[in-house]
Amino acid sequence: MSDFDFVGSVIEVVESIPPGKVMPYGEVAAAVGSRAPRAVGRVMALYGEDLPWWRVIRASGRPPQCHEDQALPHYEEEGTPLVKSADGYRINLRLARHRP
DNA sequence: GCGCTGACGGAGC
DNA sequence: TGCTCCGCCAGCG
After folding, report:
1. Neighbouring residues of A30: CB distance < 8 A, sequence distance ≥ 6
2. Second-level CATH architecture of A6-96
3. Nearest nucleotide to A34, CA against C1' atoms
4. Which of A31, A58, A65, A94 is most buried by its number of CB atoms within 10 A?
5. What is the pLDDT of residue A99?
6. Res A44 pLDDT > 60
């Protein structure tokens, strides 16, 4: 697996996430056979423009920092289980977590 | 070839 | 429940 295309695999996994579901960075990294959730975030920052990046969130149940406001409308549109929090809102990983 | 940074995760307090 | 510290890997100068 040395030819392993990290970026390509990450993009493939993110696009495989169905609407209304989400997947933590750690899960995406594990899905591509890696342990670098940070690297996944980098891919989103670079290629996220062509991907449903809002379906990829942190293990804390919150979307990428500085992007929560942009992700919110997407969740409401896809019917993603949300939980209102003191800070604003949060994703209900219990219901929204996508399992391959 | 080396070091720093980053849309993070988990454990500890 | 929220914040802090350390560790992880991949990309770039």
Report:
1. none
2. Orthogonal Bundle (1.10)
3. C9
4. A31
5. 86
6. yes
